[in-house]
Structure formats: C-alpha cells, structure tokens
Design goal:
By secondary structure, the chain is α+β, with helices and mostly antiparallel strands. The protein is built from 7 helices and 16 strands. The strands form 5 sheets. The chain has a 6-stranded mixed beta sheet. Strands 6-5-9-15 form a 4-stranded antiparallel beta sheet, covered by helices on one side. Helix 1 packs antiparallel against helix 3. Pfam families: LigD_Prim-Pol (PF21686).
C-alpha cells in the first residue's frame, strides 16, 4: 500500500520507499533520496525558485531507463505551480510557449523527488525568459583527464573573470567535471553566450594542451572541454544540490576555491548525499551569492 503523507498541507503519495536506487552506493534507497532532498531543501529551493524545471528521471536507478523532460509530467497535482515559457527558451519563437513546473516549496519538491529526478534549470527566471542572471561554464574532462585538470582550468577562468570585475563560484557537476558560475545583472542570453565563448576560446589559446572550446570528440582525450553553450536560452544545467544519476548518489555540490586549488586526486571533489548536510552546517550555502543581487556583475563593455 502506498503511504500517504502530508507536507505543508498537501497530501502526497510516496511510493516504493524501500526500493534500492543506488546499489553501488551502499544500497541507497528511494526513501533516502527523499530524506536527502528534505534535509537540503532550504538551499536547493532557493536555487530552483522561479526557474522552469527540466527533469532527468531515473525511476529504476542510474542503471535503468532515463528520460529527460521539460513538459509538465502526466499526473501532476493541480496545486503544483507552472509557468508558460517560450518553447525554445528564447524570444524568437513565434509566440509558441510550453508549460513547465516551478518548484517553489517543500511540497512540490517532495512530489518531484518522488518521481526520482535530477533537477535542471536554465540561467534565466520564468518572468524574464532569455535574460540570464548567471553565467556558467561546464568543464568536462576527456579521459585520461579528470576533475584535477578541470580545477586547473577553473582557476584560470576565475582569474580571467575576476579581471573583468565579476564574482566567481564553483560547484562539482556531480558527474565527472566542474561548473564555474558567475551572478549577473539580467543580460540577454545571446550576449552572455558570446562572452562565454570568447573566454573559452581564450582559455584554449592560453592553456594549450589542456583546455578545448570545441565539442569535437576526437580532440577531447586528455583535455578539458570548456562548454560555454549552456548559457544559451534553450539549454539547462544541473542545479546546485541535485542528486545525479550516477553509480553512487553523488551531488552537484558547491565547493570552496581552497578545495579547488587543493584538488590533487580524482576522488577529492566527490560528494555524496550524506556529505551535504555536514557541509551546509560548516559552510552554509557557498552559492548563496548567486541569488544575492548585491553580488551580480555586468559583462564588460562590448558584451552587454
């Protein structure tokens, strides 16, 4: 029998709580997934707030079927808030829109977590489509490169972005790489993408043999792909604190720059669900400045 629980006055049916989703993670169950999302809800919800959610669902665990969806899932409760956004994420859509979920509160978070999902968001908010309030670089290592090499590139990007007067933050992707993030005053996504591409090209030039701005697979072994494309209005990035569909219950976790500088082995920046509550107690939300308008920067002239 499916247990019914009440969250903030909403009745939720939470199913298969004993189902093991991460066999390689010590038998991490669906119930533990829900517990994880509940314990980090304060920080996670702040980063999901007012952003249309895309779901990567893996209801049978990371070894089972996975499917990515932006549309509102079938059976979504009527009380779950949604937003009408341009179908492609941009403004040139001929007026066509799509409806996406907004995860604004604990009840909606628990409903979505019960679907077994990663949370992905665009770099813009629902009431300002295609106007990015953050910039992101997704640093993706090509074997035998690892997150160690990603950290080298991240430190170069930090210095370069700081020289342009921007504040720079980092988190693990929860997979193989690292995300570098910058809070911005709302700026057209195409301009943010152009600026990010220019820096990715510069990184490839300044870090020969290490950084790569092109997606070409044959060029990637041993290098770090500096993916600037997730700044495009139609693209999304794994949200801070989301679990990932990996063999273990890894999390896209904010990290300090001291941790980035000290990364010497592939396992140094791997964080599991059980690591996040202690980190929040020790550091607070390291990405809090991303949602603090006082830290938002402006792109250099010529890119605004």
């Amino acid at each position: 029998m499916t247990p019914i629980t009440e969250v903030e006055g909403r009745r939720l049916a939470l199913s298969n709580l004993d189902k093991v989703l991460y066999p390689a993670g010590g038998g991490f169950t669906k119930g533990e997934v829900l517990h994880y999302y509940a314990t980090c809800a304060g920080s996670l919800l702040a980063h999901l707030y007012n952003r249309p959610i895309s779901f990567l669902r893996f209801p049978d665990g990371p070894d089972g079927q996975q499917f990515f969806a932006k549309n509102v899932p079938p059976g979504t409760p009527a009380w779950v808030r949604t937003a009408e956004v341009p179908r492609s994420g941009g403004s040139e859509t001929g007026g066509r829109t799509a409806k996406q979920v907004l995860v604004q509160d604990m009840a909606t978070l628990m409903w979505a977590a019960n679907l077994v999902t990663e949370f992905h968001t665009p770099q813009w908010q629902a009431d300002a489509p295609a106007r990015a309030d953050r910039l992101v670089f997704d640093l993706d290592p090509g074997a035998p490169a690892t997150i160690v090499e990603c950290c080298e590139v991240a430190l170069w990007l930090r210095e370069r972005l700081t020289a342009d007067g921007l504040h720079v933050y980092a988190k693990t992707s929860g997979s193989k790489g690292l995300h570098v993030l910058v809070p911005l005053e709302p700026t057209p996504s195409e301009k943010v993408t152009a600026y990010a591409k220019a820096l990715a090209v510069e990184a490839e030039r300044e870090l020969p043999g290490l950084a790569l701005h092109r997606m070409t697979r044959s060029l990637r072994p041993g290098k770090v792909f500096v993916d600037y494309s997730q700044n495009a209005a139609a693209k999304t990035t794994a949200a801070p604190y989301t679990l990932r569909a990996r063999p273990q219950p890894t999390v896209s976790a904010p990290v300090t720059w001291d941790e980035v500088e000290g990364c010497g082995e592939q396992g140094d920046l791997v964080f599991l669900a059980t690591d996040i509550a202690p980190r929040l107690r020790e550091y607070g939300d390291l990405l809090g400045p991303l949602i603090n308008l006082n830290r938002a920067g402006r792109l250099p002239r010529g890119h605004r």
